[in-house]
Amino acid sequence: MISFAGTDVGRIRSRNEDFVFASDSPIGRLPNLYIVADGMGGHNGGEVASREAVSAFVKFAKYAGGEITDTLAEAAKEANNAVLRISKENPVLKHMGTTLDGVSIDGERVYIAHIGDSRVYLINSEIQRLTTDHSYVMDLVRAGIISLEEADKHPDKNIITRAIGVEDDIECDVIIARIKEGDYILLCSDGLSNMLEDKTIYELIANNDFSVKDKVNLLIDKANQNGGKDNISVVLIRCGGDCCES
Q1: Rounded percentage of the chain residues whose pLDDT exceeds 70
Q2: Beta strands, E only, the chain
Q3: φ, ψ (nearest 5 deg) of residue 133
Q4: Which of these, 49, 101, 150, 158, is most buried using a 10 Å CB contact count?
Q5: What is the distance between the alpha carbons of residues 244 and 246, in angstroms, rounded to a whole number?
Q6: What is the pLDDT of residue 246?
Q7: CA 21 – CA 151 distance, rounded (Å)
Q8: For residue 241, is pLDDT > 60?
Q9: pTM, to two decimals
């Protein structure tokens, strides 16, 4: 398994409120761990929220003893508690929060904890979104009011309905998908997915002329070329060898 993580402030924002983490080595009983968090909130709140959420998530995972799904879900709750605690202690950070996607790969399966509108994709002969955005426009899609294509261009697509650090109890989607050797798993903030169509993401990752690191840098560069309207964060994992032995 080979991974690379990258994050960039983009062309418009003055600071980077995203935070990424990538470890191909075990974290506690997790065989590996990858995280993307996209913070929100004024007065540096987003930067604090994403950093502290990832820190709390990793710290919990180091000492957890349960199954992968339980560890990821409970780590998300710990991240939520950590951000809430800091926001209550510091009034300046009162309304901060963050999205969070935490991923671990074991054998022929990828395990995902998902909160917010950052995304996890599976790329092989096609590109597939493994997560569903927790957003206002996706609620409209589920209600049959607009199509998925209309959602991608909707002016309110950045309004999220679920985030770490907003409420005492956090509902976390836990997703399991099958993978095979040669597949790619992509975690990204909406600074990438809002700037690039899924087709473009697929074409860049499917190009075998580039390394995993080069593909991450190309994705970030392309998002900036298309406007770079938000912070851009990418974690790309290539599944191969022992990661996909059953």
Answers
A1: 97
A2: 2-8, 18-23, 33-40, 97-98, 100-106, 109-115, 119-123, 127-129, 173-178, 184-188, 232-238
A3: -55, 135
A4: 49
A5: 6
A6: 34
A7: 29
A8: no
A9: 0.94
Answer positive or negative: Cα dihedral of 3, 185, 19, 220: positive
pLDDT at 195 over 50: yes
* Beta carbons of 186 and 205 less than 8 angstroms apart: yes
Closest by CA to 123, choosing from 25, 15, 205, 17, is 205
Residues facing residue 184 across a β-bridge: 123, 238
At 91, which amino acid appears?
A: P
Strand 232-238's sheet: what is its strand order? 2-8, 232-238, 184-188, 119-123, 127-129
Confirm if 146 and 137 have CB atoms less than 8 A apart: yes
Rounded to whole angstroms, how far apart are CA atoms 119 and 36? 9
Domains of the chain: 2-244 (3.60.40.10)
Question: What residue has token string 């956090």?
Answer: 170
Is 42's pLDDT higher than 90? no
Helix axes 198-206 and 212-225, enclosed angle (nearest 10): 150
